[in-house]
Design goal:
- The complex is a heterodimer.
- Chain A folds into two domains: 2-287, Orthogonal Bundle (ABC transporter involved in vitamin B12 uptake, BtuC); 294-407, no CATH class.
- In chain A, 77% of the residues lie in helices and 0% in strands.
- Chain A is built from 19 helices and no strands.
- Chain A is elongated, with a radius of gyration of 31 Å.
- By secondary structure, chain B is mainly α.
- Chain B has one domain: ABC transporter involved in vitamin B12 uptake, BtuC (Orthogonal Bundle), CATH 1.10.3470.10.
- The radius of gyration of chain B is 21 Å and the shape is globular.
- The chains are: A mainly alpha, B mainly alpha.
- Chains A and B meet through α5, α11 and α13 of A and α2, α4, α5, α11 and α13 of B.
Chain lengths: 408, 313
């Protein structure tokens, strides 16, 4: 086990040989680019288009293999296979668009149709190739699940460089893509060509999918564009931050996953990368500060305590007994109640203050009903903390007058 | 002819049954905008199947089915959780979950040494229809003899009963399924719970996906949940007609796809058959393309034709 760890650390710190290091850098660049692009795809609500695109690459890969083995004798040149993949992926993306635009079928049906039909064609061609080129096609099924095991130096370089280029394009077009996702009308008014921006986004997505085919495999490559943005969504509400976080998560997950697979060589690279990404997602889901599950539970708990404390104090101010065990516990903890249930001096003071606040809150609600509705914690916090001091004074003066009149 | 009944007939039956059960259920998924539910489920069952295999230690159908069913229900709840907790759109939540579950399945598979037995990833993706054999059969007369029919492979029987169950489900719940699919709010106001009908549909989808999956692989399952219903949707506006047409299309692609895969390559001088599951899915896609182009009322070409005629008048 310690040997495994030592080797993993060696791989992670780029000391496990030149080729492995290059694969890791390539995977990280790819993961980062995919994560960043994925944010825009997520915001455009088109995440599953990548599913259609990735499955649509298979027939192109197999056809490219057939052509390449006919013309160059060796069909396994990565660049040729990737060009074939890109070609049929473009056809697949166009087919999705065509179905959505010209038939009555919706986008989900279009995606399903394209992915299953193209993939089926790829499988049929693959079995055909297997019967014609006995053994020569060995690397082809790597494209389905991904493998970095047999990656040549120039292939790793190709992946790293093209991922880097995609990342650069993303940085240059950042502002336009943000506009596209949030305010199409404004983008149009600013003179941007929205259709061509949408096409650019699709093109970037396609590039990432094609580059990732060999490393992650066509079934799982879409995870690179979906999981990091979904995880990043838990950490922030701002697009620019979300892109940064998704890029970081994508790069980190791919780096770690690829390092794992370079040590555990019998496990598929794509699977390990996706599982690493999902672990990061789970952590985000749990511990992210605002939207995470733990933060959510904590907020709920605090809210519950506040309501109980308030109800308890109001009961004390009306000289009513407190029955609810949770309320009793909270009041006792704050030393408003003694262990035998008697109200302490502090308790009386706090109750008085709470009753006064409540009266003020009610007055505020009557005077400014709309503003009061807009407040998230109306009547749950001391009133001076929420609304301006002069307004509180004004309200209490008015109340004093009425009170005086009542007393008289 | 003996060859046919022993080697081809069981595969043909298996492919056609899988196509039929998935194709019929797909109609309701399509109407609800959940067409990709089939895609999701056919990916997430993998870890369940491998897990069932690991726990039982053999390739028995029942533990693998249970594992797959558990995996798909677990995934559906996980998707729902992610959607709500992160306010994330359904597509992305589905994508995140099904890729992860599939990755888990792939890693488990390689890890477990299950590879040799008859579980491997290629098998999960495009199945192995051709491995279904009925060696006990001698002639077509055996189709009428009960004792012989019992010797059909287990997969076929499982799928047969599940197809019957699917048909029964649709017949019994036709009205509520229809109303909840078209107008969930209206259904709820009538006292028909759209939530429970939706869950029932997901359960049946999982059941038939799982049964079909182990026999024909995920690609055929995905294709059959979508293509026959989509083809039928191009041809009619009436749900009952759509169900009949989709059933017919599913059977048609099952039969024609199998024959093309098993015998087609030899007509063109090939030496080996190609993947039957792939070919059946491809036929379903091809029929859908025909419908999208030439459907009498909604087809792209027919609409173009009518529009021109209208302009000329």
């Amino acid at each position: 086990m310690s040997e495994f760890l030592a080797e993993l650390i060696k791989a992670l710190t780029l000391q496990a040989g030149y080729n492995t290091s290059l694969v890791l850098v390539g995977a990280a660049l790819l993961g980062g680019a995919a994560g960043g692009i994925g944010v825009f795809v997520l915001l455009r609500k088109r995440s599953l288009v990548s599913d259609a695109i990735s499955h649509a690459t298979l027939p192109g890969v197999v056809l490219a293999f057939m052509l390449a083995s006919y013309f160059f004798d060796d069909g396994r040149a990565l660049w040729a296979l990737l060009i074939g993949a890109a070609f049929s992926a473009v056809l697949g993306a166009l087919a999705v668009e065509w179905i959505v635009r010209y038939t009555r079928l919706k986008e989900d049906a279009a995606i399903g149709t394209v992915l299953s039909t193209f993939f089926a064609l790829g499988i049929v061609l693959l079995t055909l190739v297997q019967s014609v080129y006995q053994g020569g096609q060995a690397g082809l099924s790597d494209f389905i699940l991904g493998s970095t095991a047999g990656l040549l130096y120039q292939d790793a370089l190709l992946i790293a460089v093209s991922a880097f280029v995609v990342g650069l394009v993303l940085i240059f077009k950042f502002k336009e893509l943000t506009l596209l996702c949030f305010d199409i009308t404004f983008a149009k008014a600013q003179g941007y060509n929205v259709a061509s921006l949408d096409r650019l986004l699709l093109f970037l997505l396609l590039a990432v999918v094609v580059i990732g085919l060999k490393t992650v495999g066509l079934v799982l490559v879409i995870a690179l564009t979906i999981i990091p943005p979904v995880a990043a969504r838990f950490w922030t509400e701002r697009v620019s931050h979300m892109v940064l976080i998704a890029t970081f998560i994508g790069a980190l997950g791919s780096w770690f996953g690829a390092a794992l697979s370079s040590v555990a060589t019998d496990l598929p690279t794509g699977g390990l990368i996706v599982l690493t990404l999902f672990s990061i997602f789970l952590i985000s889901l749990l511990v992210a500060p605002k939207r995470g599950a733990l933060a959510h539970a904590l907020r709920h708990k605090l809210f519950q305590r506040r309501v109980h404390e308030r109800q308890g104090l109001l009961a004390i101010s009306r000289a009513e007994p407190v029955f609810d065990p949770l309320t009793q516990k909270i009041l006792r903890k704050k030393r408003f109640l003694r262990a035998d249930g008697a109200v302490t001096e502090e308790g009386h003071q706090a109750a008085q203050k709470m009753a006064r606040d409540q009266v003020l809150w009610n007055a505020y609600h009557q005077a400014y009903p709309i503003e009061a509705l807009a407040l998230e914690d109306w009547s749950l916090r001391p009133i001076e903390e929420v609304i301006p001091k002069d307004l509180v004074e004004e309200l209490s003066e008015e109340l004093m007058l009425t009170k005086v009149r009542l007393v008289q | 002819m003996n060859d046919f009944i022993q080697l081809d007939f069981p595969s043909l039956l298996l492919g056609t049954l899988a196509a039929l059960s998935c194709g019929l259920l797909g109609n309701f998924l399509l109407l609800r905008g959940q067409a990709l539910m089939g895609d999701t489920i056919s990916h997430v069952v993998l870890p369940g199947i491998v897990g069932g295999f690991l726990l039982a230690g053999s390739v028995a159908a029942l533990p693998m089915m249970l594992g797959a069913l558990f995996a798909s229900l677990f995934s559906v709840s996980l998707i729902e959780l992610i959607k709500r907790a992160g306010r994330i759109e359904a597509g992305a939540a589905m994508g995140a979950v099904f890729t992860t579950m599939f990755a888990l399945g792939v890693v488990l598979l390689e890890q477990s040494g299950a590879r040799g037995v008859h579980l491997d990833v290629e098998h999960a993706l495009y199945g192995n229809l051709e491995s279904a054999l009925w060696l006990e059969a001698e002639s077509f007369q055996d189709l009428l003899s009960f004792s012989k029919l019992f010797s059909l492979p287990e997969d076929i029987w499982v799928l047969f009963f599940i197809t019957l169950l699917v048909i029964l489900f649709i017949v019994v719940f036709y009205k509520p399924l229809m109303i909840t699919s078209f107008d969930a709010a209206h259904a709820d106001s009538l006292g028909i719970s759209s939530k429970w009908m939706g869950l029932g549909l997901v359960f049946m989808t999982a059941l038939s996906a799982v049964a079909a999956f182990s026999a024909v692989g995920s690609i055929l399952v995905i294709a059959m949940f979508i293509c026959p219903p989509a083809t039928a949707r191009m041809l009619t506006d009436k749900l009952s007609t759509q169900l009949w047409i989709s059933g017919f299309i599913a059977v048609l692609s099952g039969i024609s796809g199998y024959f093309l895969a098993a015998f087609g390559p030899f007509w063109f001088g090939g030496q080996d058959s190609v993947s039957a599951a792939g070919m059946i899915a491809l036929m379903a896609g091809f029929l859908q393309v025909l419908a999208m182009l030439f459907a009498p009322r909604y087809g792209v070409l027919s609409r173009l034709f009518f529009k021109n005629r209208f302009h000329n008048q």
